[in-house]
Amino acid sequence: MENNNAELEALRSKAIDYCSKGDFDKAVDIHKDIITKYKDSDEACANSYASIGDIYLTLRKLELAEDYLRKALGYDPLDSKCHYLLGFTYSVSSQWDRAIKEFELSVKQEPDEPEYLRGLGWALCSSGKKAEGLKYLGRAISLAPDNENILTDLAVVYLKNGDPDKAREYAERAVKINPESALAREVLHNILRIMGGLRTIRRSTSEKHFGIYQMKVKLVGSEPAIWRSFRVSGNITLYKLHRILQVVMGWDNYHLYEFRVGKTRYGEPDPEWGMEIKSARRVRVGEIFTMVRAKFIYFYDFGDGWQHEIVIEDILPTKQELKHPVCIKGKRACPPEDCGGIGGYADLLRIIRNPRDEEYQRMMTWLGGEFDPEYFDLDNVNRGLRRIR
């Protein structure tokens, strides 16, 4: 028995290690092996079913996450963590009534667990029951005053509730606790922007010309690839490149952004964040990139985590300024804003390809009635680029 326990723990540790490295497929395979090998152990099977469900939730494969978490609950219907993860699963797809039911079950089992209280509070607020939701979020933060995730949730709820001062208080606490939290920084940024508290930075008026840069941007993780090839003046700032990328890709510029060139980060710096982020408004493309095939990363929406790889395809040396950016070619539609990142987008596509799916009608309504993942209108993109000043 001791040998079996040691072997089981070794397998679980190995699965955890694979997850930490981002190799989720191998972690899932290990847990499936555990379920087969230890089929007579309810505890082993329940743990592995729950772990697989948690992995699929991380990957935003929500149907699979729900299936495996339900299997885990078949062994222990009172497992509070499984109910919490199931509530989280329903929250991602905005099924608030179902999420509330699961979070309530987890809170009933462990009434002093801050994360469970947070989940229930957020779901209630999102369903329109803000007063009741704030009570749970308030209790959660009283139990875990340094939890930046709860603080960020409170900031968002108060902002939506028309209380930006209270929202700012919670967001600033979240950023102070963890300056590396991209989501907390984005929430604070949006609050300050709404309050008119962000600084404006004048553009530099350098007369130097850097030629014309041809770039290719690809949405990391998209399969088949979502990409664009376009040309810009090397004299533009990284901030203007951000605005161009929004149009080129098809985003709506609702969220924060950041460029990463090697170990250097460019974006919208703020001293309150306590992070080394250089201003994207004060550096030009031609000042940073001098060689063809140079690569860098563009992040957009730290919540959904859209990551773009950009390659300098060519540098055309000329003193003649490009009047406006030009998109040369591209493939496939940009994912909808706030659809949950690459994993959420994959789930969206799976649902809308199957009219019999129970989520089909809700998803199509959310999309506004139609969405073609293969659609790309080059002329429309260039019309948008001509409007950028």
Describe this structure in words.
This protein is of the alpha+beta class and 389 residues long. It has two domains: 2-195, Serine Threonine Protein Phosphatase 5, Tetratricopeptide repeat; 212-333 and 374-386, Structural Genomics Hypothetical 15.5 Kd Protein In mrcA-pckA Intergenic Region, Chain A. It is built from 16 helices and eight strands. An eight-stranded mixed sheet has the order 5-4-3-6-7-1-2-8, with helices on one face. Helix 3 (42-58) runs antiparallel to helix 4 and helix 12 (238-249) runs antiparallel to helix 16 (378-386). The longest helix has 19 residues, at 2-20. The termini are far apart. Mean pLDDT is 88; it is low at 197-207.
Looking at this protein, list some descriptive labels.
Serine Threonine Protein Phosphatase 5, Tetratricopeptide repeat; Structural Genomics Hypothetical 15.5 Kd Protein In mrcA-pckA Intergenic Region, Chain A; 2 domains; 8-stranded mixed β-sheet; 16 helices
